[in-house]
Amino acid sequence: MVAAPLAVSGLTGCATSGYDHLVTNDRHDIRRVETYLNGLSSLQASFVQDGPAQQQGDGHFTYVPGRFEMVYEVPHAMRAVARDGRFVLRNADNGAVTHLSLKRNPLGLLLRHPVSFDRDVQVTNVSRGTESLQLSVAEADNPSQGLLTLQFSDVRGHLTLVGIQGVDARHHHFGLSLFDVQENQPVSESSFSLPE
């Protein structure tokens, strides 16, 4: 239920970094995603999370470039902060604190700022739907470490982040659906203090 280190099956062998190898429409949409993410000062939303073994949670998600916080209400009170290559979760019920490194975890790709999907990142897929856009990325030099998929609504050319999906090196799936999204609102710096 907690953001397990995200993983991937089926991404092995030599990887091509960046997205120059993709078709023009895909490159255009990737640049749109980069521009959107780099243009955010903040994003706040309610979330519903699916995790390993059908575990679920919900609460509030806050993102600013390079950091995010998740405050869980279900299944019980927990707070998680991702920043500086780390993910720290504190369970308010029992005081337990969990530390995960995001250095080689695809969730860490969301913490890069500015966001750029070239050089050491491999874009593995770009797909479009009715008023939606989805982009999947992995570490170019070691894609078997995991896959991160960002899901956007795409209404009249305006992107909004509405989902984050991932699979980790142990094949654990992580999914976060965002709703009631508010962008570029003031956020307290205390939101990103690491739980102790």
From TrEMBL:
Annotated keywords: Lipoprotein, Signal
Gene3D superfamilies according to UniProt: Lipoprotein localisation LolA/LolB/LppX
Entry superkingdom: Bacteria
SUPFAM superfamilies on file: Prokaryotic lipoproteins and lipoprotein localization factors
InterPro entries registered for this protein in UniProt: LolA/LolB/LppX, OM_lipoprot_carrier_LolA-like
PANTHER family xref list: OUTER-MEMBRANE LIPOPROTEIN CARRIER PROTEIN
Protein's recorded name: Outer membrane lipoprotein carrier protein LolA
